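Q: My labmate handed me this sequence with no annotations at all. I'd like to see what the chain might look like in three dimensions before we decide whether it's worth expressing. Could you predict it?
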Amino acid sequence: MKRLVPLALLVAAHHVHADPKPATKPGAPPVIAGVSPVLGDFKIKNFKFTSGESLPEVNVHYTTYGTARRDAAGHVTNAVVIMHGTTGSSTQFWRKQFIEPLFGPGQALDLTKYYVIFPDALGHGGSTKPSDGLHAKFPHYGYVDLVQSEHALITEGLKIDHLRLVMGTSMGCMHSFLWAENWPSAMDAVFGLACTPAAITGRNRVWRKMIIDGIQQDPDWLAGEYTKQPRAAMLAAGQIFALANSAPLADQKRLATREVADKEVEDGEAKFSASYDANDLLYAFAASFDYDPAPELGKITAPLVLVNSADDFINPPELGIAEREIKKIKRGRFVLLPATDTSHGHGTHSWGAEWDKDLKELLTSTAKR
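A: Here is what I predict for the chain of 369 residues:
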């Protein structure tokens, strides 16, 4: 994996806050536990990608909740960053199964105590991405680039030099490992959900490669210059994505007849095609090429908890990767949630009630006395 280099060598940046009023359009961040969101955009000038390509400016969009608290020296003491998954954005967290167990009074991420930051990764959501206009001429990014831009947002944009917690789901979980390796003293704790700390190979690489090839080999993709989404590619991508996010026991119970199962497929196909852009998908799935934290896990000094699910198609427990690699982390702990007829497969990362006790325990154990 290409290592992260000092930020000053990669970017020159300036920071801009967006309108702090709660947004009202569909998909906008909600008021959570009585706390209104603040939306912002961080502009990074002359961003150099590890591929050697560059853009004169990239934007990292973000949402925050709560109030940053500073100590006598002016350092923020209560900041939490939560990073999303591949093809997602911070909007994936605006669901009751994530919000309701976590952010209320006395809960793990009580917004009266914490300042919570949700970035949209470069290439995703409201941040700079291929579909903004460059299409397949967009610079080819990897996870190193995404983590560099997230780090720039936190340190240069929000002026935060230490985080109470680094947390992420799926791709965001992988980013958490890169954060912990490259800035080991910059956080009190790390909480990752639904990933493994090793290079993406085997079946995990295969299903991603299927989506990449399906887009590039669709004649309607037109080398990225399509005027309407390439139908066959988007259909295949949606189908593969649905399988990757399935939960066998729960799906067998939930989709109990052929008719119900068929409707699930048909509705999912239509929703997926209407929700995603082919170039954005292509870049997002290709980006994991430079992810491999395994050789340097011993650099992680912060207490770290990794939570996976036994019914996760993407990170199947029988591989034993998480159990093996977590031993390299001095204060690392691995939690495997069981598969049941009410569990959620890979998507368990978004169901806070399944793992909020582990998160609360981590925060309690790392609290400054």
